[in-house]
Design a protein that fits this description.
alpha+beta; nine-stranded mixed sheet; D-Amino Acid Oxidase, Chain A, domain 2; 2 domains; eight-stranded mixed sheet; 10 helices; FAD/NAD(P)-binding domain
C-alpha cells in the first residue's frame, strides 16, 4: 500500500526534528523516518554550542523553555598559544542578551523527541531509506523496517541525516588529520559565562561554559587523541594545563572522554530531483567556532520558510531555497575551513600575521560586530 505525504523527512535528529515540527505547524502531512530504534538514543556527552539565532528558532518552535541546562555564553576569548594577539567578543558589544548557549546534544535530542510526541507527530523508528525515485512533481521513497518494506510518495523529500541514502549526490570530503576529544572538566575558577577558543599548532582548544564547569573540545592529532582518551585523569589534566594555560586556574577533574575524527564533508549540490539535503547531510564541518549545527538549523528554518511561501509542490521551490542559502552556507564552510588552515600550524610568518589580525580586530568594534553577527545569524545578520 502506498502512503501519501506532503513531505518525507529522513533523519529525526535535532535538525530534522526542528524542521518537521515547523511543517507540522503549517498543517502539512509529514513522515519522519529515523534509523535510531529508540528516542534519545545517544551514547556519550557531546557539547553543542547554539548561537543566539538558534535560540530564536527554538523559541518559535516552543521548545526552548524545556531545554535545560542551557548555559549562556556572554564572552568569547580568542587567543593563540605562545604567541601575541587576542580578542574578546562580548554580548554587550553586540547588543544581545547572550552570544550563544552550550547544551548537551543528548538533552537537545530528548527535548525535541518529547516535542514530536507532544505534537502527535509520529516517527518511524528503526527504519532506513533503501531507494528514492523521482518524477517531475514527486518522489517515491522505499523504507526498510523490521516489518518489511513501506512505500511513501511525497511532493518533497528532505534528507537531514548525513548517513541517509542519497546515492545521487556527490560528496566532497577533506580529512583534516585531526580528532576532537570531548569531555566535561572542572576548574579552580568559575567560568563566568566566558568561552575560550585557544589555537595551538595541533588544533584549537575550546572551553565552553556548561552548568557549573566547562565542556571541553580539544582538537589534536589522532594518535594523541587516542592516547589521551585512555590516559589517567591526572595525566590528562596535566597535558591540558600545559596546552591551555592558567586562565581558568587549575584543572581539577575530568569526566568520561570520547574522540571523534574530523573531516569536512559537503555536498556541492544540495538538491536533486524532488529531494533536498539539509544539516549534516548537506555539510558536516570542523567544530572550530561552533558553526556546523547552527548552519544546519538555518538550512531547516529557511527551507520551511520557502515551503510556507510556496507550498511543497511548487516547481521553483528548490531553486529558491538554493538561492536563499547559497551565501550563508558557502561563507560558513569557507570561514571554518580557513580558520583551521590558518591557525593549525606554527609557521612564524603566519603566527605574526594571526597575532596582528586578532589585535587589530580587538581594536575595531565595527569589525567585531560584523564577525559576531555573521557567526550568530549568518549572512542575514
Amino acid at each position: 500500500m502506498t502512503e501519501l505525504y506532503d513531505v518525507v523527512v529522513v533523519g529525526a535528529g535535532p535538525v530534522g526534528a526542528a524542521f518537521a515540527l515547523e511543517l507540522h505547524a503549517q498543517a502539512l502531512k509529514v513522515a519522519l523516518i529515523e534509523a535510531r530504534e529508540h528516542a534519545a538514543q545517544v551514547d556519550a556527552f557531546r557539547p553543542l554550542a547554539l548561537s543566539y539565532g538558534s535560540r530564536l528558532i527554538f523559541e518559535r518552535l516552543a521548545v526552548w523553555p524545556r531545554l535545560t541546562p542551557a548555559t549562556p555564553i556572554s564572552c568569547i576569548h580568542i587567543s593563540q598559544r605562545g604567541r601575541f594577539g587576542r580578542t574578546a567578543l562580548t554580548a554587550t558589544e553586540a547588543r544581545l542578551p547572550h552570544l550563544g548557549y552550550v547544551v548537551d546534544y543528548a538533552g537537545l535530542v530528548s527535548t525535541l523527541d518529547a516535542a514530536l510526541t507532544g505534537a502527535g507527530l509520529p516517527v518511524l523508528r528503526g527504519a532506513r531509506v533503501s531507494t528514492i525515485a523521482h518524477d517531475a512533481t514527486s518522489a517515491r521513497v522505499e523504507v526498510a523496517t523490521a516489518e518489511g518494506l513501506r512505500d511513501c510518495v511525497a511532493s518533497l523529500v528532505v534528507i537531514a541525516d548525513g548517513g541517509a541514502h542519497a546515492s545521487d549526490v556527490q560528496v566532497r570530503t577533506i580529512d583534516y588529520r585531526q580528532s576532537a576529544v570531548t569531555a566535561r572538566v572542572d576548574t579552580e575558577l568559575p567560568h563566568q559565562n566566558t568561552a575560550y577558543e585557544r589555537f595551538t599548532p595541533d588544533g584549537p582548544i575550546a572551553l565552553l561554559p556548561f552548568d557549573t564547569g566547562y565542556a571541553l573540545v580539544w582538537t589534536m592529532r589522532p594518535e594523541h587523541a587516542d592516547e589521551l582518551v585512555c590516559a589517567s585523569a591526572p595525566v590528562f589534566l596535566a597535558r591540558l594545563q600545559a596546552c591551555f594555560g592558567d586562565r581558568t586556574g587549575r584543572f581539577l577533574a575530568v569526566g568520561a572522554r570520547k574522540a571523534q575524527h574530523l573531516t569536512l564533508r559537503m555536498a556541492p549540490d544540495t538538491t536533486y530531483g524532488r529531494a533536498v539535503l539539509i544539516g549534516n547531510a548537506a555539510q558536516a564541518l570542523h567544530p572550530v567556532a561552533g558553526q556546523g549545527f547552527n548552519i544546519g538549523l538555518r538550512d531547516a528554518w529557511e527551507l520551511a520558510i520557502e515551503i510556507r511561501r510556496r507550498g511543497p509542490r511548487d516547481e521553483r521551490l528548490l531553486e529558491a531555497y538554493r538561492a536563499r542559502r547559497r551565501f550563508d552556507r558557502a561563507g560558513g564552510i569557507a570561514f571554518t575551513d580557513a580558520l583551521i588552515r590558518l591557525f593549525s600550524n606554527d609557521l612564524p610568518p603566519l603566527a605574526v600575521a594571526r597575532g596582528a589580525a586578532l589585535t587589530l580586530l580587538d581594536c575595531l568594534p565595527a569589525a567585531k560586530n560584523f564577525v559576531v553577527r555573521r557567526m550568530i545569524f549568518g549572512t542575514r545578520g
